[in-house]
Write a structure and sequence with these properties.
Helix 3 crosses helix 6. Strand 6 and strand 7 form a beta hairpin. Helix content is 34%, strand content 30%. The protein is an alpha/beta fold. The C terminus is likely disordered. The protein has 2 domains: 118 residues, 2-Layer Sandwich (Nucleotidyltransferase, domain 5), CATH 3.30.420.40; 93 residues, ATPase, nucleotide binding domain (Nucleotidyltransferase, domain 5, 2-Layer Sandwich), CATH 3.30.420.40. The radius of gyration is 18 Å and the shape is globular.
Length: 237
């Protein structure tokens, strides 16, 4: 099976080509440059370098969020368009799960990938490696960092924090968790697109037309509209 993996959900832009159990090519940058301008040339260059044509692709795997609203939309839109035009299966994978897999597949404790969401909030989840396979312990969520630290403290286990935004909260986590807090190496903070391909390899294809990103929280304009119409208190957030 030949897989094209695409991740533009955060500052890291990643593309990978995987053939069965071999990573043939991987492109990754961490930059605030516009992903919409760079993603298609990155895909085209990587496919050319690996002697692939679009018709060679058997599955497309995309990071579906959470993350940057614009970034997530770019990746999902391109993945859906390619999957529809090539008539190939489309699979979505949590952007947090990709981070957790890259750094924590063989970590003996818990793994907490982090994306900063500002105002003391983070996008995170909790994972554990079992026999080399990643298992989700707590669902992906938007949570205040102090509340998250308290819940982790009660687990009495070491927690590996991973992601480029961990530096923003490192002092706080060290203060509140002490030796429980372990931090991934800098080489592990970028989500690897090859990990994305691996995570999506055996997942069944999803309906292309109904496939949507997982933002976790509403965009500000949508939240304000729902609040103005009295809908937020009905559990629609």
């Amino acid at each position: 099976m030949k897989i094209l993996a695409i991740d533009t959900s955060n500052y890291t832009l990643g593309v990978a080509l995987v053939d069965e159990d071999k990573v043939l090519g991987e492109y990754m940058t961490y930059s605030k440059k516009n992903h919409s301008v760079r993603i298609m040339p990155a895909i085209q260059t990587l496919m050319k370098d690996c002697d692939w044509t679009p018709k060679d692709v058997n599955k497309i795997v995309v990071a579906k969020g959470p993350g940057s609203y614009t970034g997530v939309r770019i990746g999902v839109t391109i993945a859906k368009t390619l999957a529809w035009s090539l008539q190939t299966p489309l699979v979505g994978v949590s952007s947090l799960e990709i981070l957790a897999a890259g750094a924590g597949r063989y970590f003996p404790g818990l793994v907490s990938p982090l994306f900063d969401a500002r105002r003391g909030q983070v996008y995170t989840g909790l994972y554990r490696s079992e026999n080399g396979q990643l298992v989700q312990v707590e669902k992906d969520q938007l949570v205040m960092i102090d509340k998250w630290a308290t819940s982790l403290k009660n687990r009495n286990e070491q927690i590996l924090f991973v992601g480029n935004d961990t530096g923003i909260h490192r002092s706080f986590l060290e203060e509140h968790l002490g030796n429980q807090a372990v931090f991934a190496a800098i080489s592990e903070h970028n989500p690897r697109p090859s990990e994305l391909a691996l995570l999506g390899k055996n997942k069944p294809g999803e309906d292309i037309h109904s496939f949507v990103p997982n933002y976790i929280r509403l965009v500000e304009a949508e939240a304000k509209w729902l609040e103005a119409n009295g809908l937020l208190e009905k559990g629609m957030e």
